[in-house]
Structure formats: structure tokens, C-alpha cells
Amino acid sequence: MNTRELVTEATLARLNVLRMIRAGKSGHLGGAFSCIDIVTALYFAVLRVEPSDPADPDRDRFLLSAGHKALSQYAVLARRGFFPEEWLDTYGSVSTKLPGHPDMHKLPGVEANTGALGHGLAIAAGMALGLRAAGNGGRVFTILGDGELPEGSNWEGASIASHHKLGNLVAFIDVNDLQISGRTADVMNMEPIADKFRAFGWRTTTIDGNDIDSILGSVRYASSDPSAPTAVVARTTKAKGISFLEGTLASHYWKPSADELRAAESELRAASGLLVGKE
Amino acid sequence: MTVDTLVDPRRTLGEAVTQAAAQDERVVVLSADSGLSSGFRAFREKYPDRYYEFGIQEHGVTGVAAGLATTGRIPVFAAIAAFVTNRNFEAFRNDVAYMAQNVKIVGRNGGMTYSDLGPTHYSLEDYAIIRMLPGVVVLSPQDPGEIREAAAAMIAHDGPVYMRIGGPAIPDLFPQEKFVIGDGRTIRHGDAATVVTTGTITPQVIRAVDQLGELGISVDLIGMPTIEPIDEACIVESVRRTGRVITIEEHYVRGGLSAAVADALARLAVIRDAIGLPHQHIVTGDYNALLAKYGLDAEGLTARLRGILASG
To answer: Where along the sequence do coiled-coil regions lie (chain B) (predicted)?
Structure first.
């Protein structure tokens, strides 16, 4: 899939997120849209996964440490064929397979039950250790939010990945600069993020996390030296793709009016070159 | 019992896991600077590629254990009981229990067996908090044979397990036999009451019950090496006969074995007494002196059981 096609996929995934929010009436849109270009690029151009065999032991793993960004993963998993897109319409309903935070026992393709912040990196490190021991070449990709970096457990995970030289582990840090209480720099400033990971023994690269080519470039960088884990500091925009929500705190957990939802859908359809279609 | 028949429970644990690892290559051991002191020195020598050291960080190691388990490994993570149930509780809850991973966490030096180190190193609430986690088996074997067999059963069981063992050397109490998770063990027969106990305190309880026997008071004594799922049938059968139950544990009474037994008996109207640790921070000192101070040594238990039973 070329860059243009991946960009289109990311837009279609964003439309899937809106579809879920339409069904559930609210959701964590801001973070889902800041990281969804990464999720799309990984599932369509990087990960060795097979939707018809989601439990293949030799598959690559992807997990969201920032589990509240689950809408991005659900949207892409559906596009990638892990489950019927009709399931998206169950978001928010009782006993849905698409809960507000991901559940590996409910939805094919989900690898971990995250949601409490600061858990993903250690779980990912355990997966990377296990895959390395299995010798199947499996890699592990995770996305952390910048807002969860103060959780000390991240730095436990960071030290583990470095000490055990987990070159098959890549952590994207989705730096959208905002968290529920305000600007991340004001709430708890964890910059310089790349320096911190470097100090822990990681390889690092900083990219535009909403640019497909930059994302793919960072994966190539990670693959170029398997001696250490790679942290990709992905500078992103919260709610990227919806002009009236971009960079706003209101997008963190979005409860749209009918008009706002329609406006968001129209903008994305226009961006993807699709006709403004039926509701 | 003589001193030279006492066995270090950590050594027993390490030997049992090493033996299981010989039969099942999925078994790996995780250490938070805690493996060697938990009895895994021989394991590390025999299986250096299956022994992972992480330094002192119980939360991170618990997450790693869950991640490893998703790739088909069976991680055994042993450390001081207080630190693998409290410090890492959210990882235990979410990454191990909620993710339903095949992870085995062993808390050693449970109860107040780290008697000189104080409340930071005691584990007097582990039964309570871990048995709250859906799908987690909670084991508290009572003698070296049970530890050995419980370790094998723990590894054979497909799902998360927490096992508490002590620290000081303990005596053999029972002939070694296959451990069935969820089975209670009737140790003495009697009719004045049902006494239910578990774990490292059991040798004291047996002595107390025998001393009562010499005084002409006979009780049913049930050893309960599995706290979750508790052997409800075993308790109910005995209590229906004796009409009352007394629980004894090296744990706060609130939420522990006492609560598990009470849950099992909720529909039976019986008078119930519970012996354990008072709901306060526990002092330090020689372990046996602490047992005596809190009335958990055989003599103290004898007196308390007599007192309870005399009260009708």
C-alpha cells in the first residue's frame, strides 16, 4: 500500500471512529485521532498479522498502552478485516465487544487489556522477551500517551526493555501535548522525552506522528539496529483531522451534538475525496 | 518434631519449580532481585536462559509476566509476599487477573514470618486482596510436601495463581500426596467444633488441637491449603455436624480465611469465632515470640480455643 492509499485508509479509519461515537454518543476522540495515523500505518504496512488467524503465535504484536485510544485500534482492526464493520455500531451498548478500553478476550486482534495507564510498556516488554525466546522474529509495537509518562511503571518497563536489549520492541510516544487537565507541559512536564528514553538506553527518533512517511521512516530506523529498543517520539495534533476540534481539550472525551458530528463527518469525507454521502 | 527435620519452604519451592521446569520447557522464572532468596539458585544454574532478572521493581515484573504469558510461557515470579501483592496490585489485577494470563506469583515470607523486619515486610492482607480478583487461585500450603505438590499443581493449572509460603523452616506434617486445588484436608476428627486453618500456622494449630484432645475436647481440624476456591463442601459437612466453626490464620481476621469460610457458611446459622491477627500494625521481634504475643502459638491457641468452647 502506497502513502496515498495509507492516508486514505487513515481517513476511513477516522470515519469509523465517528461511526462508533455516533453509536455510543461519546468517546475518547482526541487521542484516537492523534495516534490513528500510526495505528493505520502499522496495521496496513508494517505488522505481520493475519486477520483470519489472529492467534498465530508468530504474529507481530500491537498494543495500546494508552488504552483509552481504543477507538483508533477498533477502527483500523475493522478496516483490516479482523471483525465485521457492523460491530462498530455496537459501541456503547451493553456487552459490546468494543468496550471503552480494549479487551483481548472480546475482540480479535486486541492483544492486552489496557486502560489503567502505565501498564503497556512492561506488558510489551514481556511479549518482546517471549517472542525473542521463541525465535520467530516477532516484533512488538506499542503506543504510549505523553500524559501517562509520569506513571513510574513506564520507567520500570523502559529499564527492562533496555537492560534485556529488546531490539524487537518499538514504543511510539504520542505527544499531542494535551491531557484531561490541560497542557501536558503544565500538568507534569516530562520533556525532554527523547533524552529520557536515550538516558534509559533506548534508541530514539522524533517524527511528525501524523505523517505516514515519517511514521514508516521511524519503523525503518527501528529495524536498522536490533541491539536496543526504539522510542519514537511522535509529535502529533490532538483530534487531528477535524479542524474545529484540533488541539482542543474538549476533544479528549468528545460528546458531540448531532450538528458537530455531521460537520466532522463532512470534513473527513471531503478530505478523503469521498462524496459527502448519506448519513 | 526436631529441629533437623525442619525444611526451608523457599528451598522446597525452588526445588519443586525446577522439577516442573524439567518436564515443561514453558516454565520460566522471573526475579525482582528476589529469585535467589526465594529458592531459585539451582534453577538459575540449571536453566540460565529461563531465569530473568529485572532488579527491584515488582510492578514492572508483574506486567512482564503477563506479556510473557501471552507468548505461551509460564512465568513464576516469587518475592516477598508483601511486595508481590501490594506494590504491584494494579498489575496483578489488570495484567494478570483481568487478562487471565497463566502467571504464577509466589509470595514468600508471608504472614509475619519476617518477624524482625516489621509491618512493611509483613503480609497480613494478601489472602483478602488477592482472593478478590476473579479467576485467581489462592494457595497457602501447610508443610513441605504440600508446598512441593502445590507448586506442581500451580504450574499444571491453566490460569493465574497466587501462592503464599513462609520463611522460617517448617516441619513435615503430612505424607506427600497429589495436591488437588480446592480440596481441604481433615487433619483431626472431633465434635466440639470445626477448626479451619491454613498455611504456616498449621503446625501450631495441630499442637493446640492435640493439647485440647488431652483435655478431653475433640474438634474437627480442617487444613485448607486452597483459600480460593475454598472447599465449601468440606466445611459445610463438618460444621453441620459440630454446629460451630473457628478459623485460625496468620492474617488479619478481616477478609481472610475467616471471610472465605464465612462466605461458604453464609446460609448456615452457626456460631462462629475467628482467630487471626488484630486489625492493627504488628510489632517486631522473634517470630515465635510474636506468635506468642498474638496468641497464635500452640499454647495461646489452646487457651483461646478452650475459652471459646467453654463459653458454649
So the answer is: none
